[in-house]
Amino acid sequence: MPARLTPEVRQYLLITGNYWAFTLTDGALRMLVVLQFHQLGYSPLQIAMLFLFYEVFGVVTNLVGGWLGARIGLNRTMNIGLALQVVALAMLLVPTTWLVVPWVMAAQALSGVAKDLNKMSAKSSVKLLIPADQQGALYRWVAALTGSKNALKGVGFFMGGALLTAIGFRPAILLMAVGLALVWLLSLATLKRDLGKASGKPKFRDIFSKSRAINQLSGARMFLFGARDVWFVVALPVFLAEVLGWDFWQVGGFLAAWVIAYGFVQGSAPYFTGRRRGAVPDGRAACGWAAALAVVPAAMAMLLFLGIAPQRVLLVGLSVFGGLFAINSSLHSYLIVSYADADGVSLDVGFYYMANALGRLLGTVLSGWVYQTAGIEACLAISAVLVTLATISSIGLPRRHVIGGSSP
Q: Which tens digits make up the pLDDT trace of 167-197?
């Protein structure tokens, strides 16, 4: 690593590397579980229930994890997350007959805790590296981190489908567990600095945000991610396999390509939202981009109801949805880091990602239930309603334009 990098930046890059490694296993595990249990004859609603505790514990983890990060440092919360993911993977190495719903839900619960500890640690860290007057640089760093993470998650989706086809469920889980255990040991040896530790000892009641802007942005984030996951988590992969007859390679490959492209757009979001004008986005931009996104699932649902070829509607529509959603997500990720208080930043970021996890929980449950009872058209219609609610929640966000600074 270049000697000119400061210790803070070196630590941040190590955290980012850990986050990337974790993201690969998280994406692969999600695809492995969905496809394996669909193959075993589980219904869409039952598959959705496997992820229920993953999302429920994500809600709790972001609240408590933000407080914990402010007290003990973000490096420690990162290492705890890596260790828990190794345990969660190990829990799925039992014989197939033991993989009953409660056991898999418990493993997913641990994985949910691990994922959100990692996300909170990485996203909080960047706030501490950029001077407050360099909002343009902050936006670019956040966009790069978020975009690269989602691109790697897409690679993880493909990896999960490919591993399931090539070597089977248990060998794939074992391979990922061993690889992540090595990353965890390296992290224990290299992450030494108490990055993100608050100057005081925050009380537990401080986990709830007192900022109006953060509360509104958190509400918008909840609806936004509910709108994505209502069709993405269960409905889409099951529809592709069950209705369109795609095999595991095709399902995993399509979802991987979607998420990778989504990640690249996230990383490029500053270009689309003001960089060419020397500005960074504000609340008005968040509202406008959400309104544009709401049109897409509404149009897709209408076309499917009218009997237009579903494969064409999904491939084209979800490409447009992915691009607009990526810009919305990246913009939101910048705004929360910008709004957050630098002292104990993980408290505000943790509260915000609690709302994110709540949205994922809502979307996950609806994805299985609505698809099973009314089909993918209904999932897309509900997605449009949820994005509309995200637009409404964004109306009162602060409206200001800040000239960006240079990268550190």
A: 988 999 999 999 999 999 988 887 766 665 5
* CA separation, residue 26 to residues 180, 211, 353 (Å): 11, 32, 17
91: its two tokens: 């829990």
Alpha helices for 278-399 (secondary structure H): 283-305, 310-339, 345-374, 376-394
Minimum mean pLDDT among 13-27, 141-155, 248-262, 386-400: which range? 141-155
Residues forming beta bridges with residue 279, ordered by sequence position = 403
Q: Which residues pair with 402 in a beta bridge?
A: 280
Which residues, in sequence order, are bridge partners of residue 280?
402
Query: For residue 408, with 0-12 CB atoms within 10 Å meaning exposed, 13-18 middle and 19 or more buried, which class applies?
Result: middle
Is 364 buried (19+), middle (13-18) or exposed (0-12) by CB count in 10 A?
Answer: buried
d(CA 347, CA 63): 8
Burial 157-183 (b: 16+ CB within 10 A, else e): bbbbbbbbeeeebeebbebbbeebbeb
The H or E element spanning position 3 is: none
Asked if residues 339 and 348 have their Cβ atoms less than 8 Å apart, the reply is yes
Please work out, in degrees rounded to the nearest 5, the angle formed at the alpha carbon of residue 171 by the alpha carbons of 167 and 172: 80
Tokens of 379: 């999932």
Helices (H), 73-134: 74-91, 101-127
